[in-house]
Structures are given as structure tokens and as C-alpha cells.
Amino acid sequence: MKHLAKKVFTELELEERMEKPSQSIYDPYEYRKEIATLGYWDGLIHLVSSVLGGGILSGPYGFKRVGWVVGLIVSAIVMTLIVYSFRLLARSINEICRRRRVPYMQFGRATMECVIEGPDWVKRYRKSVSIYVSSFLVVFHFGVGIMYIELVTESVKDIIIYWLGYIDYKLVMLLLAPFIMAITMIKKLKSLVPISALANITVLISLAMIAYYMLDNATTVFSDLLMFNDFTYIPLYIGLVLLSNSSLGVLLAIEAEMMDPARYLGPFGSLNVVFASLTIPHFDIIISLVASVCLCILGISLPGVMDMCLRYPDNYGPGRIAQVRDIFLIFFGVVACIAGIVNAGFSIYYRYTGEVHI
Fold first, then answer.
1. Where is this protein localized, as stated in its record (predicted)?
2. CA dihedral 104, 107, 113, 119 (to 10 degrees)
């Protein structure tokens, strides 16, 4: 069965599977177990690692810009949408796999097959959608890769300067690059579990130490923290929360390699457990721009498109509530994308021209 899961099905083969469905109920999860390697706790460790991210400690600055009340509300709303949209995405992929009777499909292929299930005017864009998804996944992961190299280099450089004095930023990046590249060349998520576990432990210890010093001087730390502040910063803040808490490629890869994928999306599955316990956002203008361009569409709007096509023409439930929900997700993702791009563009302009933005 290994060869079946890894096989790339041609369009003709998939059409034949549509035209000649078997009478038996096909469960993609059952056929995927033979190639799965991740258990429940393995998936949980990877999820925590991907959600914690590298810029978790910059969250307080984001709260300061929009106000802590607005920050909490926006974070809660966006994270709820992230979890809901991804569950919708995973179920859409599973449903199209069931209809095509294949164990698993890549994101781009699954999107194209879902579009084929939709109205005739949508079907003509099926190949364009697949290319769009694949292209933006590449852009997103490239941007995230640059972000992590920058963050690690900056942190190590500060430590070296503290102990030894001046060191060139580019030299630190050059010295660290081989180690970072070596880790990224490990393809099997199972092999990366110990590294993710070590990273999680290190981050949690660091957070505990920082919390200790903050609470030891709480009056000074929280004295200038406002409940409400700059509302124009909210669109950029949404993009930052998205990127901090939604590593789409990792989420899909974990779901694909879990031995019991049903536990991934269950009420107490890995996905819900992690997102219920981690609510601290990321913060940086450049990576927010990447999130606005890629994640708002791929992570929020696209699951709505896929679900709407799969339910076409008349499986939207009472009052077409599912269609209303999907349209809302599509609209929210597009608006957040446009607003995030515009806001990030102005922020980059103000930062590099030195103009004061109030």
C-alpha cells in the first residue's frame, strides 16, 4: 500500500475513479495508516513547536501597539478562525480523497479536485488554482525560512556581543547557516521529534525565566500598558497572529503522517489541545506581510472555497448556513489580506524613511 499513498494520480486516473466508484465506503485514513509514522504525542510536540515559533517574545510589543484589551480580543477571534478553517481544510481534503478513493492528496492537487466538484464557471480555473496554491506555499515557506535565520542570527549575535564584544552580523549568519540547513534537510517528521521536544523545553524555560523577572518588577513593566491604543495597527496585527499561530505546511504534514489522523481533529485532538493552550502572537512587519499575502488566502479563504465546491449544488444545510459560513471565510480572508498588505506597506515606508506615524 506504500506505493499507492505516494503515487501521483493523473487527471485521467482520477476521472476514472469518479466514474466507477466502488459500492463500499472508502476511508482514506485506513489506507494511510501503513505509511503513517507519527503518534498522538509526536504530533502534539511538533504542533507546539510550530505554534510557539521563533518570535513569541515580541508579542507584548504588539499588545502595546493595539492595547491589551484589543490584543486579547483580536487574538482570540483570529485563532478561533485559524482552528476552524484548518479543520474545514483537513476535512475537505479527506472528503475529496474519499470521493477519488486515494489515501492522500497534496494541498494543490486537493484544491484542484475540490474546484472540479463545484459549478461549471469555477471548473475552468482548476489548474490556475493548483498553481496558485503551490506558488504561495513556496513563497510562504521561503519567507518563514528567512525569518528564522534572521531571528536565530540576531539572538546569537547579541549573546556573542555581550560576552566578547563586536562581531559582524553577516559572519554570525554564515557560521549558523550550515547547522540550520542540516536540520531542514531532515525530511521525516518522526526523526525531528527529539529536536522539536528540545526546542519546546528550551522555549518554556526561557518564558519562565522572563516571567519571573517581569513579575519581580511588575509595577514598572505594566505602568504604561494601555487598554486601547492604535486601532489602525489592527490589520497588521491580524497578519502577525496568523503567522505566529498557523504554520500551514507543518499542520498539513503532521495530519498526513499521523497513525491515527482522526485524533488530530477530535475534540481533544492534538490540534485543539495546542491552540487552546497557546495564545501569544508573533510580531514583525516583514513576516506579517508574508502572512497577509499567503496565509489569509491559503489558511482562511481557500478552505471556504473548497468546502463550498464540495457541497455544491444543494448540500449546504438548513437555510444554506454552510454556504453563508464559507462566503464569510472567503470575504474575511480577502479583506484581511488586502488590509494587511496596505498596512504593512505603510509600516515599512514609515520605518525606512524615518517618518513618525501616529
1. Membrane
2. 140
- Domain definitions of the chain by residue range: 36-101+134-351
* DSSP alpha helix (H) spans, the chain: 2-6, 11-19, 28-32, 40-52, 59-66, 68-100, 107-116, 120-123, 126-164, 169-184, 193-216, 218-222, 234-245, 248-257, 261-265, 270-277, 285-295, 302-311, 321-353
Q: What is the pLDDT of residue 19?
A: 46
DSSP element (H, E) containing 168: none
Q: Which residues pair with 38 in a beta bridge?
A: 258
Q: What is the DSSP string of 277-334?
A: H--PPP--HHHHHHHHHHHIIIIIIHHHHHHHHHHTTT-S-GGGHHHHHHHHHHHHHH
pTM of the predicted structure, to 2 decimals: 0.63
Please tell me the total number of residues recorded for the chain in this structure. Answer: 358
φ/ψ (deg, to 5) at 38: -95, 130
Placement of cell 483537513 in the chain = 90
Query: What pLDDT does 307 receive?
Result: 85
